[in-house]
């Protein structure tokens, strides 16, 4: 309930608004306040003269306030009107409907003294926009004394939104000839296009007796969105006349199809056309494309064009420019545009904030966040993402708890932060909290927690998450399917991983790479190579991750020739430059097959400095094949790259001992000891309920360590009795 002070303030605002309107009307000669009793002539003049102008003004103010979300303003104008006509009532009904107040719209409609076709149409549209109440819309439609083209178009739109295409087609065919114009046809075309039914839309379009600009623009946009760029351009070229909407739709279609040159070329053609002018919507499309395609030169040129044309620097145009410069990484330019904007909305602030976060300018991001006049979920989530990227999980949680409203995206950002910082158990705990708070996970959430389960090799946890995926109907989401394949593979269950992979309708490069990697990880090299063969036959282009999995598969199967073939094809066939990890895989492959000199020659030919993984692979192979000279070289390089690592000392010491050089072995052990370099202890873990219990060599910090020792002793005794061995130990 509002306080007396608040009620008084609202009442004062309404009075002020009425006085402002009256003052404005008087200045324009629309409003006459009659003090004395008017005679019949005055009444007649008031009714048919100035009062008519006042009504038009009042009605336009109701509509304007409603469209701007100022519902109280619309109500104040409506109540202050000395005279109302059907247009006034209809405008107020529409204002309610546009702001989601369907109950108030219906109440006002029922109170209308005289309903017109327009008021019925407004109420039908309100029912359709709000929860698509088709049954009520039909009842209203059948009640209209005299229907017009808008009535039929509104009802057809209602059927389409409800997925009732047969009913929409039936009503379309029953539309009287006098109302069979482009309005109803366009409603049906748009409905079919939004539902992906291109062929049905084409059928309606081609059957139209008269097509208008809306018809052509809708079809061009539909063709583009369905990837039929050639058909879209063919229709565009045959149009009798074009407006800025059709030009923009065709330009955007080229960009969405990945053809920047064609889209930008058409924009230049549009600029030369005399019968059309570029508007802010067109320029917004251009700025978005320049950012997506990283076309800095063209983007800055169009920015200059905006200045030369003297276009109004509206908020939408400014936001698109900020986003473009952020994608270029030109944060100074993005900030300059932001500063120049006289009007900013929440999107303006969030666009710049996102740019700062994505480009690791966290100090600037935090400073901007603190200055924001209003923060929404996107603002908070961006900051959480930025903090997690810096490894500051505690600050992430602090911000998260401060959020006034938390949606699934915000929860996912926190969980992703834990996974990114290798705190997998915490990620799963927070996922449990998310479910406890009745927040619905999205596909990104599931992908994240499946990744956590995979790293922990927690198959039981992964199975529970998979059950949740099925329950929420997300098992057909590609990102989730790929994560499931990865989880099952990393948990050693390649059977279920492959079963899910086969269920993916349109696997992408991630799907194939994950399955190849899963087979390779579990030692099924031949199966991995078969999946790659299938990938090639499907015309999917592999990426650098695919080749890492492939080379690993070759290492498992000892296929040196095939490994060399794949390694060389990266650059020659797919224009992918091998990185240090690819070289490490090849060194591992050659080393496992005993080709140590060939492995060393490959390392020597690397165009960059080898990392520790490369030398580590060579050192491991040298130990297997007792190649002391190369082992000494590899160990020396590892000691330089990772001075705190015990691996080169341990491996080389063991190799010296095997070769009979015990003095060198002891010397190396003493060096390691003097430097206080310790080998990382072995670690294992088990999952009980929702908690992971890790165990390390020599670690007795577990809260149940005494009970564990007693249990182990009992197991040892039972083993001695059953196996008959006296020297079993743990």
**Count of individual beta strands:** 2
General form: elongated
Structural class, from secondary structure content? mainly alpha
Instruction: Supply the number of helical segments.
Output: 41
- Give the averaged pLDDT, no decimals: 85
Query: Can you list the strand order of the major beta sheet?
Result: 1-2
Helical percentage: over 70%
What is the terminal separation in angstroms? Answer: 71 Å
Q: What percentage of the residues does DSSP assign to strands (E)?
A: under 5%
What is the C-alpha radius of gyration, as a whole number of Å? 35 Å
Q: Enumerate the spans where pLDDT stays under 50 for 5 or more consecutive residues.
A: 1-50
Largest sheet: 2 strands, antiparallel
Describe the protein's architecture and organization:
The chain is 71% helix and 2% strand. With 730 residues, the chain is mainly α. It has a domain at 1-114. It has a two-stranded antiparallel sheet. Helix 3 (50-67) runs antiparallel to helix 4 and helix 7 (117-129) runs antiparallel to helix 8 (134-143). The longest helix is centred in the first third of the chain and has 24 residues, at 4-27.
Helices and strands, with pairings:
Layout: H1 4-27, H2 40-48, H3 50-67, H4 71-80, H5 86-98, H6 102-111, H7 117-129, H8 134-143, H9 149-161, H10 165-174, H11 182-194, H12 198-206, H13 213-225, H14 229-238, H15 244-256, H16 260-272, H17 280-292, H18 296-309, H19 315-328, H20 331-340, H21 346-358, H22 362-371, H23 377-389, H24 393-402, H25 408-420, H26 424-436, H27 443-456, H28 459-471, H29 478-490, H30 494-503, H31 509-521, H32 525-537, H33 544-557, H34 560-572, H35 580-592, H36 596-604, H37 612-624, H38 628-641, H39 647-658, H40 662-674, E1 683-688, E2 691-696, H41 705-723
Helix pairs in contact: 1-4, 3-4, 3-5, 4-5, 5-6, 5-7, 6-7, 7-8, 7-9, 8-9, 9-10, 9-11, 10-11, 11-12, 11-13, 12-13, 13-14, 13-15, 14-15, 15-16, 15-17, 17-18, 17-19, 19-20, 19-21, 20-21, 21-22, 21-23, 22-23, 23-24, 23-25, 24-25, 25-26, 25-27, 26-27, 27-28, 27-29, 28-29, 29-30, 29-31, ...
């Amino acid at each position: 309930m509002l306080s007396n002070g608040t009620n008084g303030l609202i009442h004062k605002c309404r009075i002020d608004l009425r006085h402002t309107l009256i003052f404005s009307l008087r200045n324009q000669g629309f409003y006459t306040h009659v003090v004395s009793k008017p005679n019949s002539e005055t009444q007649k003049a008031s009714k048919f003269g100035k009062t008519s102008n006042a009504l038009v003004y009042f009605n336009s103010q109701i509509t304007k306030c409603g469209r701007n979300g100022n519902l109280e303003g619309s109500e104040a104008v409506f109540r202050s009107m000395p005279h109302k006509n059907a247009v006034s009532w209809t405008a107020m009904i529409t204002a309610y409907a546009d702001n989601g107040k369907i109950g108030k719209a219906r109440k006002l409609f029922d109170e209308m003294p005289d309903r017109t076709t327009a008021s019925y149409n407004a109420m039908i549209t309100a029912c359709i926009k709000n929860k698509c109440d088709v049954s009520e819309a039909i009842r209203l439609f059948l009640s209209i004394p005299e229907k017009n083209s808008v009535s039929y178009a509104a009802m057809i739109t209602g059927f389409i939104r409800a997925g009732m295409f047969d009913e929409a087609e039936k009503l379309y065919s029953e539309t009287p000839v006098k109302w069979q114009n482009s309005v109803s046809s366009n409603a049906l075309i748009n409905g079919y296009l939004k539902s992906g039914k291109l062929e049905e839309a084409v059928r309606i379009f081609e059957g139209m007796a008269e097509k208008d600009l809306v018809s052509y623009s809708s079809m061009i946009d539909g063709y583009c969105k369905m990837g039929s760029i050639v058909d879209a351009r063919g229709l565009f070229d045959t149009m009798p006349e074009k407006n800025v909407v059709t030009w923009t739709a065709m330009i955007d279609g080229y960009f969405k199809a990945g053809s920047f040159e064609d889209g930008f070329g058409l924009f230049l053609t549009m600029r030369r056309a005399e019968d059309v002018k570029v508007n802010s919507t067109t320029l917004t499309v251009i700025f978005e494309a320049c950012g997506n395609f990283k076309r800095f030169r063209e983007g800055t040129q169009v920015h200059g064009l905006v200045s030369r044309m003297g276009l109004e620097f509206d908020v939408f145009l400014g936001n698109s420019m900020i986003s473009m410069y952020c994608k270029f990484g030109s944060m100074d330019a993005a900030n300059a545009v932001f500063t120049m904007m006289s009007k900013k909305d929440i999107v303006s602030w969030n666009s710049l904030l996102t740019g700062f976060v994505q480009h690791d300018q966290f100090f600037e991001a935090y400073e901007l966040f603190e200055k924001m006049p209003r923060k929404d979920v996107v603002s908070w989530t961006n900051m959480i993402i930025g903090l997690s990227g810096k490894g500051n999980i505690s600050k992430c949680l602090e911000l998260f708890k401060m959020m006034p409203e938390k949606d699934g995206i915000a929860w996912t950002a926190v969980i992703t932060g834990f996974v990114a910082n290798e705190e997998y158990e915490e990620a799963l705990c927070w996922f449990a909290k998310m479910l406890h708070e009745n927040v619905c996970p999205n596909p990104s959430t599931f992908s994240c927690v499946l990744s956590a389960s995979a790293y922990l090799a927690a198959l039981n946890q992964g199975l529970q998450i998979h059950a949740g995926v099925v329950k929420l109907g997300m098992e057909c989401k590609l990102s989730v399917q790929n994560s499931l394949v990865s989880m099952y593979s990393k948990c050693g269950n390649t059977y279920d991983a492959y079963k899910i992979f086969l269920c993916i309708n349109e696997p992408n490069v991630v799907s194939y790479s994950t399955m190849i990697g899963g087979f390779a990880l579990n030692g099924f090299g031949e199966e991995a190579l078969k999946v790659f063969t299938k990938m090639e036959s499907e015309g999917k282009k592999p990426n650098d991750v695919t080749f890492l999995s492939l080379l690993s598969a070759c290492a498992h199967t000892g296929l040196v020739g095939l490994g060399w073939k794949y390694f060389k094809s990266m650059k020659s066939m797919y224009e992918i430059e091998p990185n240090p990890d690819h070289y490490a895989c090849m060194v591992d492959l050659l080393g496992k097959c005993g080709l140590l000199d060939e492995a060393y020659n490959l390392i020597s030919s690397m165009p960059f400095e080898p990392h520790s993984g490369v030398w580590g692979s060579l050192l491991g192979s040298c130990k297997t094949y007792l190649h002391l000279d190369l082992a000494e070289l590899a160990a020396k390089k590892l000691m330089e790259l990772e001075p705190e690592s015990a691996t080169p000392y341990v491996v080389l010491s063991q190799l010296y001992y095997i070769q009979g050089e015990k003095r060198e072995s002891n010397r190396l052990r003493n060096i390691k000891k003097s430097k206080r370099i310790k080998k990382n202890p072995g670690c294992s873990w088990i999952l009980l309920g929702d908690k992971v219990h890790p165990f390390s060599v020599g670690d007795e910090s577990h809260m149940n360590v005494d009970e564990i020792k007693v249990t182990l002793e009992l197991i040892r005794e039972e083993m001695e009795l059953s196996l008959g061995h006296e020297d079993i130990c743990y």
